[in-house]
Hints:
The structure is a homodimer.
Chain A: H1 23-35, H2 38-45, H3 49-62, E1 69-72, E2 75-78, H4 80-107, E3 113-118, H5 126-137, E4 142-147, H6 150-158, E5 164-168, E6 178-186, E7 188-193, E8 214-217, H7 228-232, E9 238-242, H8 246-254, E10 260-263, E11 274-278, E12 287-294, H9 301-324
Parallel strand pairs in A: 3-4, 3-5, 8-9
Antiparallel strand pairs in A: 1-2, 5-12, 6-12, 7-10, 7-11
Helix pairs in contact in A: 1-2, 1-3, 1-4, 2-3, 5-9
The first copy, chain A, binds a DNA duplex through helix 3.
Amino acid sequence: MSSMAGMSSTHGGARDGLPEVSTVWVRVFLEVARHGSFTVAGRHLGWTQSAVSRQVSALESALGGGPLFDRLPRGVRLTEAGRTFVGYAEAVAESLHEAVRELAALREAAGGQVRFGAFSTADAALVPCALAAFRARHPGVRISREEGLTPRLLERLAAGHLDLAVVSTTQGAPMEAYTLHHLLDEPLYVAVPAGHPLAGADGPVRLARLADAEWISGSARPEGTLLDAALRQGFRPRVAHVVAEWTAKQGYVAAGLGVALVPALAVASVRPDVTLLPLDTADVPCRAVYAASVRGRSLSPAVGAFLGVLREAAVSVAGGASRSR
Amino acid sequence: MSSMAGMSSTHGGARDGLPEVSTVWVRVFLEVARHGSFTVAGRHLGWTQSAVSRQVSALESALGGGPLFDRLPRGVRLTEAGRTFVGYAEAVAESLHEAVRELAALREAAGGQVRFGAFSTADAALVPCALAAFRARHPGVRISREEGLTPRLLERLAAGHLDLAVVSTTQGAPMEAYTLHHLLDEPLYVAVPAGHPLAGADGPVRLARLADAEWISGSARPEGTLLDAALRQGFRPRVAHVVAEWTAKQGYVAAGLGVALVPALAVASVRPDVTLLPLDTADVPCRAVYAASVRGRSLSPAVGAFLGVLREAAVSVAGGASRSR
DNA sequence: GACGAGGGATGCGACCAGCGAATGTCTAGC
DNA sequence: GCTAGACATTCGCTGGTCGCATCCCTCGTC
């Protein structure tokens, strides 16, 4: 209090407009106003009459000095100033009450919002599954979703437009700025037409056996895409058709125009005339999928809950995928 | 605090919805939110960083335990809970700020209201004069006025519908419930037609000389009215005409239909063909005029100021009245 | 008319909240 | 690796606020 010396005289004259009052005083004031008696109000609050008397006294001087109550022989009664203050006191109490309630709702993930993004194949099963479970469990949380590639999502995350981003491992991105929550490791599959020579193969396929195949890929150049792995296997895949969308890709594969790499998350939506072959993980390491958040920024309970649901969904999806073939 | 033991654990969990929060914490919170730093906020508020840290910490636990800020290596940043609370904190600060301002206005009689009543003859000069002066001096104060007889006004006062009542001495009313602020003593006059035998009398008139006169009065029976004095003089005045309104009374007097008692406050509005004769104060004691307020109930500053103006007006009116005749 | 009851104000002693100063810990940047 | 900056924590101390006891005032009653 020493640094305040000289600014306010004794006890709380309004310094820069905001009087120093405790909500305790406010509650006491309202209780006294309701009962018209210090003693009765004190009994209701579990305090002695003397405490109430001094609380009110303190409030009066904090508010500028004017009395809020007339002290009558039989209890007290609001002055005009007191009547005026009742409204403000109730507003203050109401604000704080409401604040506590909303913060509690936030804490229990019964309110607030989750803004998240995901890359497209995650939307095939993982995200819808998680969303359904989350909606059921936390109906009060507003959810906004967006789709995009990993770099773009991370960018949006850093800019504060997203709370969470479902991303896959990406070389070159500065991951120090993010906290990664591991969701699942997805093996890769190769999609071949139903009658393809390799279709009957037993067990994982070595990537090298597809060195001469024609590829359907989202990009003409393999660098930075899933086909990256082929480079490390010593061959440069020939991209016959550039097709971005997974549904379209399947059509090309089914028509026998080439083969395509498929991340495990997309296996749920494969058409019957396309066969998926698991790739040997020695050639193509599992691609890890993470939920990324900004490092150092605490997850709101709603976001935390959503992350939990995402984890569950990941387990269920990964299990289902491996069971399906 | 001992009686609170067992209700709240350590430090301010919301008891019945209202958290125990000091406005100091709120101000510190807003300052920290504005600057994004405990240290900077502390400097602005004249406190040390440790104090700010604990203030925020206390606020966080009072609000339910969730952190309001993310502690980053380079300052702090609002969490979602913190962002949510900003609005409420500002609402609280705004309410209290506004309360202080309005209470200050009230205290300086720059706001609030004055509800007063007055008996009719006071409205002839005293009340308008006071109103004009008060309006000029305190333009922010709302004034409501009503008219009535003294008993009715006191009743309204006790019921809390009035702050102040301009009344005259009345027998029989329980005056212990009121505080009387003396305004003036008004002598009584008798109004006679211009050609009346007594019109030329020098000096005060004895009431007994009017024992045979016919009277114009507001009531058929003299008891409780100004004519009460006649009873004490040993004669019962004959009321020829019952006329309530002073303007009408004058007409009857001017027409020679009788004489009428006139309180000094009404002398300002006398017509030229009516002569006013002062009555001997030995027969008819001066009637005191008071401003009455409820005993024990403090006068709001606006009401107090109005009372002061009434006193000034009383001096001016009384002086003018005595000068005029 | 004296007296007890009820209610608010106040002095006293004790306690704890909250201050400053110093120190610890962590991270970013050089 | 080292320094600087920022928040957390500890320690000692001041002071605000509580309960208790008491005083003062008014009202209702015998």
